[in-house]
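Hey, weird one. I pasted the Lipopolysaccharide assembly protein A domain-containing protein sequence into the form twice and got a warning about non-standard characters only the second time. First submission, copied straight from the form history:
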Amino acid sequence: MWRSFGFVLIVLPLAIILIALAVANRAPVDLVLDPFAGRFVVQIPLFLLIFGSLGLGLLIGGFATWISQGKWRKTARSRRREAYDLRRQADRLERELEAREADPHQPRLTAE
């Protein structure tokens, strides 16, 4: 229920605004890729330029965030490996304890 409410509250108005922006900016604009000589000119609708810039910004921001969180991913991998090793060690010790308890001829250790 909250998910659909959040969709209606956030995504729907954002979509309406983006559609209105695209309709209002349909006219082609010159995108000059060589500002000094002006030889590389591409005509594209302004809304494509705006949406493309937003998309590129999202990709660059996501990549920068992924790079900056590398140390946390490394720590998580290390801790996962350590937990796996400790789990294996605990299982091995449990098996050894069960084997000692099953064999009545093994000397028992007592606490002092």
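That's the output from the first submission. The warning seems to come from a hidden character in my clipboard, not from the data itself. The radius of gyration is 31 Å.
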